[in-house]
Design a protein that fits this description.
Number of domains: 1
Number of helices: 1
Distance between the termini: 24 Å
Mean pLDDT: 86
Structural class: mainly beta
Order of helices and strands: EEEEEH
Low-confidence stretches: none
Oligomer: single chain
């Protein structure tokens, strides 16, 4: 996978708007975007707008990642 930062606020603290990562296949095909915010993560498959993406809060994400 090729992951790039689409937008990045200069401040180190993540703001409400968040940081958007673009995810592409090695051949350049766009898969989707991940938006990291203060409240959690949003997966936007394809060209999905973040308000319509799949949202997960930080507690849910941490539990999912630590689940064996």
């Amino acid at each position: 996978m090729k992951v790039t930062i689409k937008s990045f606020d200069v401040n180190m603290e993540v703001k409400n708007k968040g940081i958007e990562f673009e995810v592409r296949e090695p051949d350049g095909t766009h898969i989707g975007d991940v938006v990291l915010t203060k409240s959690g993560l949003v997966w936007c498959k394809g060209r999905t707008d973040p308000k319509n993406g799949i949202k997960v809060n930080w507690k849910q994400f941490i539990a999912w990642m630590e689940d064996e």
